Amino acid sequence: MSVLVYTESENGSFKKIAHEAVSYAKGIADAMGTTVTAVAVNAGDSSELGTYGASKVLEVSNDKLQNFNAEAYADVLAQAVKNEGAKVVVLTSSANSKFMAPLVAVNLEAGYVPNVTELPSSTEPFTVKHSVFTNKAFSNTEINTDTKVVGLAKNAYGIKENPTSASTEAFSPSLAEDDFSTEVVSVDKATDKVTIADAEIVVSAGRGMKGPENWGMIEELAETLGAATACSKPVSDMGWRPHGEHVGQTGKPVASNLYIAIGISGAIQHLAGINASKTKVVINNDPEAPFFKAADYGIVGDAFEVVPQLVEKLKAFKAANG
Amino acid sequence: MHSIFELYLVSLASLKFTQQNSSYMKILVCISHVPDTTSKINFTDGDTKFDTNGVQFVINPNDEFGLTRAMWFKEKQGAAVHVANVGGPETEPTLRKALAIGADEAIRVNTPATDGYSVAKQLAHVVKEGGYDLVIGGRESIDYNGGMVPGMVAKMIDANFVNTCISLEVEGESATAIREIDGGKETISTKLPLVVGGQKGLVEESDLRIPNMRGIMQARSKPLHVKEPVDATAETNTNTFEKPAPKGAVKLVDTVDELVDLLHNEAKVI
Ligand SMILES: Cc1cc2nc3c(=O)[nH]c(=O)nc-3n(C[C@H](O)[C@H](O)[C@H](O)COP(=O)(O)OP(=O)(O)OC[C@H]3O[C@@H](n4cnc5c(N)ncnc54)[C@H](O)[C@@H]3O)c2cc1C
Question: Ligand 1, atom 37: nearest CA belongs to which residue?
Fold first, then answer.
């Protein structure tokens, strides 16, 4: 009857969202009076998952699963759920989780709710709060099926330690040829950059930067903070920055701890996509820019003056604070 | 302005094409009918229903990229492009808009869209009945952000599936797709029948088509089939909606020194 959680890893180490997902799964398991079983695929040593509350880890090690494959991974999870008799499956909001969640749900005849922001308000009936209308509202939704699939919203629950002694078990699902009818041919991913999905801090800039040649100071600010870079939609539409940096309602969602918006007006479609960020800072020379209403801190000023000053100050701060 | 007779010739020509070309694809674009991105989000009936008062509905932006990509398939390699929506009669103007953009036929499954699962079930039935080779949906609808309908349809009809699809090429039975992943992209090779969850990148913003007068006129006479739903029980139901707690006022500071101090000592984010 346990709670099953998928723990995402990359190059043999678990991602932070895996720790957050296990923490959250433990919260549900406690509410239901049961334990957490984690599934780890080609992740190497998984004993660390006990720190966040996993009692058992099913370790899958299979060369065919080297690249993420939604169909095959969904099949692995569904088999693990059936083996364990799990009633709740916890996924995240990573691209891979969102890719496979609907497949897992259909496979298990389970109702699925994504973007869940809190522990269930009730486990009987199973009721979860999740963001809708791109962070403009929340919905309290009941899942009526016997098995439930929930996708945890990014950075919504946080990592919570809950030391538990975790046993590990090798798990060898039977994979059908059908599972591999989509095949990853190549992966194109910058390995030296923080991704918007994983970043705790995002530095984002808009049309106020006037042109792509002025992004040096934005990149420097991001580098100083160990942040990911992002941009408003027109900036990517004009080709100043790559599409992967477009954030907002029609771009990537951002739910970082700190979001710094530079030369971005704060249009409703932009705000919707970044609103789940915890602390928002705006640098804009127009005191009437709508973004100030949505921000926690603001500087009314010219980005071309403020940003270099901020970089200097932060470098000094980092040097002083390690 | 083109005469009805000309239009008739055009449709006759495309019909002939259907019969002759073996690589001719049948494409279904799933169209979600959503509030315009600038809409005020409010609820009624004790916070149990979305308040549609004064709200303008549009084609879900992610689906619009997919529809334009489908039109390119039609124009470059020959394809029939149908659009489908699960919803009440109020969604028909959105389907007509898709027809005006260039889709050949529209299907409305006459039942309210209650949850992602039940919508997927209806669409899966439409896909099976229509024998579509390629189904293009959106990465997510901007209203309920479920992001589950395309994947569920794929699983229900046993088709291949690519989500967050930003490029798609089809050659005979083979398809090459590019998927956006966290921090990059990957190239995927697969086969038809295929379902994709699309987004910007399938075509660019500047490629999106705005219906012109001719398209709007043609759309009036294109078929819009209303189908009765198959049995599908929702797996989830919304009890209530709520709005985020109102935000406190912004703290304006004059210097970067103050800002860094606040971020460190008050917000504790650096
Ligand atoms: C269907 C739809 C979907 C959309 N989806 C998105 C989305 O996902 N994401 C998104 O971002 N947008 C989206 N938009 C676009 C959105 O409406 C805005 O047009 C866009 O966000 C504006 O980008 P911006 O703030 O960079 O530019 P602008 O609105 O032009 O703002 C530039 C800002 O820079 C400031 N500025 C200028 N010079 C300086 C300076 N020297 N120093 C400091 N500040 C300066 C100005 O005061 C201004 O506030 C969408 C629109 C539609 C219709």
Answer: A208
Cα A265 to ligand 1 centroid, rounded to whole Å? 5
> Is B208 at the interface with chain A, CB within 8 A?
no
Tell me: the pLDDT tens digits for A200-219?
A: 999 999 999 999 999 999 99
Q: Which of A149, A180, A211 is the last residue of a domain?
A: A180
Among A185, A165, A24, A26, smallest CA distance to A97 is for A24
Q: Is residue A14 part of a domain?
A: yes
Complex ipTM, two decimals? 0.95
B136 closest CA partner among B84, B178, B198: B198
Which residue of chain A comes nearest to B202, CA vs CA?
A243
Q: Which domain holds residue A92?
A: 3-180
Instruction: Indicate whether residue A251 lines ligand 1 (CB < 6 A).
Output: yes
Please say whether the beta carbons of B149 and B137 come within 8 A: yes
Q: Please state which CATH number belongs to domain B17-243.
A: 3.40.50.620
pLDDT in the model for residue B236: 97
Domain count along chain A:
2
Per the domain annotation, does A187 fall within a domain?
Answer: no
A10-53: per-residue pLDDT in tens? 989 999 999 999 999 999 999 999 999 999 999 989 999 999 99
pTM of the model: 0.94
Whether A84 and A146 map to the same domain: the answer is yes
